[in-house]
Design goal:
2 copies of one chain form a homodimer. By secondary structure, chain A is α+β, with helices and mostly antiparallel strands. Among the domains of chain A are: 17-141 and 347-381, Bira Bifunctional Protein, Domain 2 (BirA Bifunctional Protein, domain 2), CATH 3.30.930; 388-502, Anticodon-binding domain (Rossmann fold). In chain A, 41% of the residues lie in helices and 21% in strands. Chain A has 18 helices and 19 strands. In chain A, the strands form 4 sheets. In chain A, strands 2-6-7-14-13-12-8-11 form an 8-stranded mixed β-sheet. In chain A, strand 15 (388-390), helix 13 and strand 16 (415-417) form a beta-alpha-beta unit. In chain A, helix 1 (25-44) packs antiparallel against helix 4 (146-163), helix 4 (146-163) packs across helix 10 and helix 5 (177-187) packs antiparallel against helix 8 (243-253). The longest helix of chain A is centred in the N-terminal third of the chain and has 20 residues, at 25-44. The first copy, chain A, is elongated, with a radius of gyration of 30 Å. The termini of chain A are far apart. Chains A and B meet through strand 1, helix 1, strand 2, strand 3 and helix 3 of A and strand 1, helix 1, strand 2, strand 3 and helix 3 of B.
Chain lengths: 503, 503
Amino acid sequence: MAKNRKPKIQRPKALPPKGFRDYFGGEVDERNAMLRKITDVYHRYGFDPLESSAVETVEALGKYLPDVDRPNAGVFAWQDEDEAWMALRYDLTAPLARVYAQFRNDLPSPYRRYAMGPVWRNEKPGPGRYRQFYQCDADTVGSGSVAADAEICAMLADTLEAVGIERGDYVVKVNNRKVLNGVMQVAGVLNPDDPEMFAAERGIVLRAIDKLDRLGPDGVRSLLGKGRKDDSGDYTDGAGLSDGQADVVMGFMEAKRCDGAATCSRLMELVQGSDIGTQGVNELETISELMAAQGYGADRIDIDPSVVRGLGYYTGPVYEAELTFEILDEKGRKRQFGSVAGGGRYDDLVKRFTGQEVPATGVSIGVDRLLAALREKGRIGSKSKGPVVVTVMDRDRMGDYQAMVAELRNAGIRAEVYLGNPKNFGNQLKYADKRESPVAVIEGGDEKERGVVQIKDLALGARLAAEIETAEEWKAQPAQKEIARGDLVAQVRAMIARAEGQA
Amino acid sequence: MAKNRKPKIQRPKALPPKGFRDYFGGEVDERNAMLRKITDVYHRYGFDPLESSAVETVEALGKYLPDVDRPNAGVFAWQDEDEAWMALRYDLTAPLARVYAQFRNDLPSPYRRYAMGPVWRNEKPGPGRYRQFYQCDADTVGSGSVAADAEICAMLADTLEAVGIERGDYVVKVNNRKVLNGVMQVAGVLNPDDPEMFAAERGIVLRAIDKLDRLGPDGVRSLLGKGRKDDSGDYTDGAGLSDGQADVVMGFMEAKRCDGAATCSRLMELVQGSDIGTQGVNELETISELMAAQGYGADRIDIDPSVVRGLGYYTGPVYEAELTFEILDEKGRKRQFGSVAGGGRYDDLVKRFTGQEVPATGVSIGVDRLLAALREKGRIGSKSKGPVVVTVMDRDRMGDYQAMVAELRNAGIRAEVYLGNPKNFGNQLKYADKRESPVAVIEGGDEKERGVVQIKDLALGARLAAEIETAEEWKAQPAQKEIARGDLVAQVRAMIARAEGQA
């Protein structure tokens, strides 16, 4: 007997790893529907899909995280049996660089590609911050023309409208790293003849302006000057700029005027005497003109030097899509929804592999934030799409019920037969409720004999149960209806249509 | 100067890790289109999407690989910073078990769910065998009814037709583990009163019949008896069955008759006296009847005891979809395309977590094999969907060209402006060729002045260049056409339609 005694079983926990989650039903459908709308636009713009492997070698991935909001972001990495290190991709840009370097002789040039899928970050999870999330990117590799940047801005505006963000509820803001370089030159921390000089100061300036959102203008100004003590008492060294020098840098971030032309004029004043700065302003002017030629006004795509996120990473134009409508934050205060997509020009990713500089520009859409915005606006998540449930009154007649669902499905109607234990009919209706079924079909022995079935409008039934008080009212507004068995498809279809009309 | 001298740069290799690959353009589109068709059918059958995380804890994943073709399959695993082991999912069933155990109180019961996405296997890659590949699964958890199995068989047949496999080119074969258990009882290697007795022999029998495809009937018979020496000289111990016992087991695999009823009669003879065997045959009969009630004949869904793959893993009905048309293998020999999907009933996955047995049944479609089959049949991969390319004759008029593509895109036509260096016009046309563009648009200064543009049918142009020999013929069949600038959208649309009609 002792032989058969089993050790105490240690059961595994039914949980995903920390920072990971699952997506169910409507959440998956909504995201897929949105990704399809986005990629329809990308496709129309001539971009081709690319699905690279989720796993890359660590050496190919490198360390090029553009997202300064996640400075501690790491990767999930492990060693293969033959000792090689591999890792899950942390974005879709690093794999693009590897793919372009690998296949550059076969790919068209310029190469327009889009990609969508999960990326992984090995960092501390927090509320609403997961270690696996979706990105949806479009990039043009191999074109140095500012028309490529302009095209992506136009595509971004079209994409937002395609997924359901109305005109007026968003703006694509455009800035340019070269203008900032010009400003640094004017401020005396960039010498084109000796690019290494003041590199440390410029690093501090870049990190400072990238923190504008969090620290505000005063905080940035402290960092441009002597330095700044934060709330925890930690001291961050400043760039040591004089007030006059700092004025120039701050002036850049505050150069926004009433329209693109006026903003460019102001920027031109700020970079006077700097070639790189002048070039940057000219690029912004060209983008402004190209947008106007295609009918995009400043209400949709605007020149805005206050966009500083990613300026330290990108090398030319930088763009960011912001949603301008207000939402209530956790503390009940009104605030703008904010950024849902961003990108810009970067010219050095492919160089890591080939030694050749390949110009590239691209955008990444924060899929989950955009979904959250659409939910906020009530644009998704409203309609029930549950299946018609054919109930089982007589478990020996499963063939009859399966034949009914087959008829409904062949007519394109989502339907299923109840597959749990049919003994308790109440459980079957509870199941239908949980599935958000529009209609339940009921056929007992009596109905079978008479060649009829009962169909029940479940949404109406629930409403009536809540509102109606007398038996007379029940009869006047019946949620249940007896129909001929041969009319099943037509009558169910009509009941669904009526229910959807009332929803 | 020494300060600026840089160390020799070790460049990363532009390659994915061994066993991983990338998918480009049409490959991605085709797979997505197929997945959409599959999930449309799953949706119509009442299945809900589930997207679980790609990463699971190692303890939650367990070791439940059903795929006996990949016996050495391992997982990619690593340790988190807090020492917890996590791994990439190796299939979509193990995560379903974890999700169901975690959310069982909130999910409807029965829970019908589908899932699609990549899975990862840490095994030696080989030709056509990758370490990341797609699966597309549908499972019903919480229903012990054989109607749930029948439903999945029907859905599998509908799915194959929905993606383009014609009726007659496939068959869904159904078998049952319980019948095998009955056969084992009759053969004297299973005693219902002492389930542990002969466990070792049954293990050998199960592994032997799972090798029927590779070893053939003679090889299996050796393993049922004394044992078998393979080509390398390695000896595998047999189950030690007598010839009479082995006859019973072999009879099971050869019990297929002309139709389901005849096969079930034969099976009933084989399991006579075994309760579990009788139950299994009854289940097969019920499935046969349910299929008939829904109009699925034996040409589409058939009872076939020669389906043995996975019998060792599943606990009740087992099903496999085979494509019956012939292809030529690597050696030029004709052979049937074979299996593209398989599944069955398993009742113990959730038990690992909760201690409760939860009945479940489900199917997994081998997405890449099904795609290969469709390519073999010429059902996908034929049509060019490249963009219209607007060429750049005058780089200062980029705004004009961008306005043209904007017009085309707004009319739903895939279009792009050439963004490379426009100096060499030949390169622009080569680019259009590489993109498989249907139409190129050309507007030089002269055309601009006269309010016209040239549009060029690129497919026709290529054909003419190959076929036509005299200048007169060129003029009679012009691939290029001058049109009014205002007619751009209408004329391009007409040219694409004509090209598609001729393709």
